[in-house]
Design goal:
- It is built from two helices and two strands, in the order αββα.
- The protein has a two-stranded antiparallel ribbon with strand order 1-2.
- The longest helix has 17 residues.
- It has a domain of 43 residues.
- The protein is mainly α.
- A hairpin with a 5-residue loop joins strand 1 and strand 2.
Length: 62
């Protein structure tokens, strides 16, 4: 997944085909599928994937 992300970051979301027309980067589906598989694995493990809070301590208003 990281290799695909690095290539997309380097090359951009679109590439030129042999006719000079822009088309979606060929690694976009691979990155999407790898991300979906990773999220499915995390769900199967019942891991908490809630994002970390930006501030330490208790939530406000409690």
């Amino acid at each position: 997944m990281r290799g695909a992300q690095e290539a997309i970051q380097r090359d951009g979301m679109t590439v030129l085909d042999r006719f000079g027309q822009r088309k979606a980067h060929p690694l976009l589906p691979a990155e999407r599928d790898a991300r979906a598989q990773m999220l499915a694995a995390l769900r199967a493990l019942n891991l908490d994937v809630e994002p970390l809070h930006d501030r330490p301590g208790r939530p406000a208003g409690r």
